[in-house]
């Protein structure tokens, strides 16, 4: 076939409610001067669908919406201009325009997941474009497509020539409609008791030194530490339950010193190492060959930041905003958190912290805590749907002071 349909659109990226417009042209790719083509009709469709496939099972799709526009009705012989002559006034072209819906509806024939992991509401916000493939777990996608079709003339109910179909995929994104998420935090706590002569001033260490007993020298008994100075404290690492793509993560580190249980004044605490991980979790739901339904889940661990403070170690007094001493920005190319009929993308955040106190390092092992990622782009006019509330694993009843996302305080005191 030496002729074809060509789609011309000014852009390929839209959000719900935008107008998708352009034109469909009949062009010739094999004839320098163009050619005549018998045309029965030309139409264009705009559709959205979500598809899941769990290897080696059959794909399962839910249609989100479907629009169709008839551009030309024949039968008639039309001229297909050369595709290289984009400014040719003899070209046959037809404009089209669609408005992307703000929400979508599952058709009656589509069964929906009953699990709370998915959004089973038959009417819900239009989801964003999405593709994820996992060799072992399966694949899932949310695809929006423009598809013009040329049908040849019919005679006695039969087509008399060749037809043509063209597919162009467009990207649908979503802006966040809140400038900043409501502050709520998950907390990881770890309590420590540290005994050491180093907790004392240098001039007092010799006075507090106790010689070993006979049994301790013969290793018949472990050396006693009861006489040593004692520091009792708790380290808290706070991670947000919601964050914005492309923005720094508001991570707060607290040191709560128990003066009553300790035998020395508060020592100096220095930050030695911070490691931040993000766990990307994809869940999908679909049909199996027995006629039932299956769900699949796969995860991917993403290292966000690993910072070693070797020489200039930030001092931690009562609390420290980690954004002041390291880059905690989230990758802007990640997909925001979303739930739809048969696909879900969620995230969890884990932070490891290593603090030094009186010559000894104390490690806080992080646990994965849910963190909803919001879109990087902000638009106050975006339709205000009620998004699913973030899952709080361990909400802190003692939240940190309010964060200022615009200005930052001075960098804390460092120690060499």
From TrEMBL:
GO terms for cellular component: cytosol; plasma membrane. GO terms for biological process: ubiquitin-dependent endocytosis. It comes from the Eukaryota. Coiled coil: none annotated. Residues 384-416 are annotated as: Disordered. InterPro entries: Arrestin-like_C, Arrestin_domain-protein. GO terms for molecular function: protein-macromolecule adaptor activity; ubiquitin protein ligase binding. PANTHER family: ARRESTIN (OR S-ANTIGEN), N-TERMINAL DOMAIN PROTEIN (AFU_ORTHOLOGUE AFUA_7G02050), ARRESTIN DOMAIN CONTAINING PROTEIN. This is Arrestin-like N-terminal domain-containing protein. The lineage of its organism: Eukaryota, Fungi, Dikarya, Ascomycota, Pezizomycotina.
């Amino acid at each position: 076939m030496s002729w074809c349909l060509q789609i011309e659109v000014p852009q390929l990226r839209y959000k719900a409610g935008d107008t998708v417009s352009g034109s469909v042209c009949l062009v010739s790719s094999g004839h320098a001067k163009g050619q005549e083509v018998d045309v029965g009709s030309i139409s264009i469709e705009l559709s959205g669908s979500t598809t899941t496939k769990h290897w080696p099972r059959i794909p399962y799709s839910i249609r989100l919406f479907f629009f169709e526009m008839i551009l030309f009705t024949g039968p008639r012989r039309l001229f297909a201009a050369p595709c290289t002559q984009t400014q040719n006034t003899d070209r046959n072209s037809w404009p089209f325009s669609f408005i992307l819906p703000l929400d979508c509806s599952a058709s009656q024939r589509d069964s929906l997941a009953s699990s709370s992991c998915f959004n089973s509401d038959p009417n819900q916000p239009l989801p964003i474009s999405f593709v994820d493939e996992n060799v072992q777990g399966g694949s899932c996608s949310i695809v929006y497509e423009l598809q013009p079709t040329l049908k040849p003339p019919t005679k006695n109910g039969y087509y008399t020539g060749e037809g043509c179909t063209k597919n162009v995929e467009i990207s649908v994104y979503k802006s966040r409609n809140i400038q900043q998420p409501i502050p709520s935090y998950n907390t990881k706590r770890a309590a420590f008791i540290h005994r050491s002569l180093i907790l004392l001033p240098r001039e007092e260490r010799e006075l507090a030194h106790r010689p070993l007993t006979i049994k301790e020298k013969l290793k018949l008994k472990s050396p006693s530490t009861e006489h040593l100075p004692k520091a009792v404290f708790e380290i808290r690492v706070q991670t947000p339950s919601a964050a914005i793509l492309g923005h720094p993560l508001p991570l707060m580190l607290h040191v709560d010193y128990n003066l009553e249980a300790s035998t020395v004044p508060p020592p100096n605490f220095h930050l030695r190492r911070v490691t931040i991980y993000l766990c990307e979790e994809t869940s999908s739901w679909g049909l199996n060959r027995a006629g039932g339904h299956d769900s699949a889940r796969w995860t991917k661990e993403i290292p966000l930041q690993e910072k070693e403070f070797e020489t200039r170690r930030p001092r931690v007094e009562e609390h420290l905003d980690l954004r002041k001493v390291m880059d905690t920005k989230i990758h802007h190319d990640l997909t925001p958190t979303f739930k739809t009929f048969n696909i879900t993308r969620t995230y969890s955040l884990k932070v490891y912290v290593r603090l030094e106190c009186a010559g000894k390092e104390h490690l806080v092992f992080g646990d994965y805590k849910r963190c909803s990622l919001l879109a990087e782009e902000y638009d106050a006019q975006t339709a205000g749907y009620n998004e699913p509330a973030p899952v709080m694993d361990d909400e802190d009843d003692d939240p940190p002071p309010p964060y200022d996302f615009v200005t930052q305080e001075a960098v804390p005191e460092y120690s060499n």
